Amino acid sequence: MKIIAIANQKGGVAKTTTTINLAAGLAELGKSVLVIDIDPQGNASTGLGIAQRDRQRTVYDLLLRESLLDEVLSPTPTPGITVIPSTTELSSSDVHLYSVNKRSFLLRDSLRGADGAGARFDYILVDCPPSLNLLTVNALVAADSVLIPLQSEFFALEGLSQLMLTIREIRQSANPALRVEGVLLTMHDQRNNLAQQVEADARETLGELVYKTVIPRNVRLSEAPSFAMPVLQYESESKGALAYRALAREFLEQNEGPTREARHG
Predict the structure, then answer these.
(1) N or C: which end of the chain has fewer CB within 10 A?
(2) Where are the domains of the chain?
(3) Calpha distance 117→254 (Å, rounded)
């Protein structure tokens, strides 16, 4: 089991889109994936087909220790993907969890608990809210690594500094093994000179941390959530779907070595 937090305190950078479609790409490659929706907006839950009426037990119950991990798992219509859903109730978590002992460790302790329920999954992807609040801190403390979506726009790199500072603080205090999994360029328009410059600056500044795969701007990526499915199912041959499949392969190669497809060309 490996836990990856998908985080960036800036909104609108395709965190949820990346969570949903990386999960779908990994599932296509035979991996068992758990998506934890720790964003009060609950968009990852919706995008993976979990209707509001079906969210009887959520990540909030898990954090409050009112439910065990097994009790909050929701199967999705996509084979290989399970979700711990979220609702707007989670937006009050900072207030309710403030007095809880070891409040930054609640998610970690739940996922790595004695019952071993988390170990059935190959990968756990945590979709974080667009802020560096207690929920994001819980995700970073629980995670092995952080995947950072970076929108191809002006000031994108400047916005990374606060997240990197937070990651450094988490390493020093609660999770010394936390590392950056990679930086993913999203919403990229190759015809746009600014996007090309952002990519060049990112690769010069961050080097091999930046994935070779780049996620393009793509209408199908925007449409898929309204049909409650990953773009890999909604429009399998779209540019967005092909890009996230490439990301899933690159991700697995970094974590497990070359995939069968890569070995056989």
Answers:
(1) C
(2) 2-253
(3) 25
Query: pLDDT for 7-62, tens place per residue?
Result: 998 888 999 999 999 999 999 999 999 999 999 999 999 999 999 999 999 999 99
The structure tokens listed for 182 are 């990679």
| Topology at the third CATH level for domain 2-253 | Rossmann fold (3.40.50)
Specify whether the CB–CB gap between 124 and 36 falls below 8 A.
Answer: yes
For position 77, what pLDDT does the model report? 95
Question: What average pLDDT is seen over the chain?
Answer: 91
The phi-psi region of residue 80 (left if phi > 0; otherwise alpha if psi is between -120 and 50; otherwise beta) is: left
Query: Could you please report the per-residue DSSP string of 1-60?
Result: -EEEEE--SSSSSSHHHHHHHHHHHHHHTT--EEEEE-STT-HHHHHTT--GGG-SS-HH
Alpha helical stretches, state H, the chain: 15-28, 43-47, 59-63, 69-72, 93-97, 106-111, 134-142, 160-173, 193-206, 219-223, 231-234, 239-256, 260-263
Q: How far is CA 8 from CA 32, 159, 161, in A?
A: 25, 8, 10
Reported pTM:
0.93
* Pair of tokens at residue 72: 């909050």
Whether the Cβ atoms of residue 134 and residue 97 lie closer than 8 Å to each other: yes
> What confidence score (pLDDT) does residue 114 get?
55
b/e for 109-145, b at 16 or more Cβ within 10 A?
ebbbeeeebbeebbbbbbbbbbebebbbbbbbbbbbb
- Burial environment of residue 64 by CB neighbours within 10 A (0 to 12, 13 to 18, 19 or more): middle
Structure tokens at 258: 């070359």
Residue 160 three-state SS? helix
User: What does the alpha-carbon distance between residue 250 and residue 240 come to, in Å, rounded to a whole number?
Assistant: 15
Structure tokens at 218: 């793509």
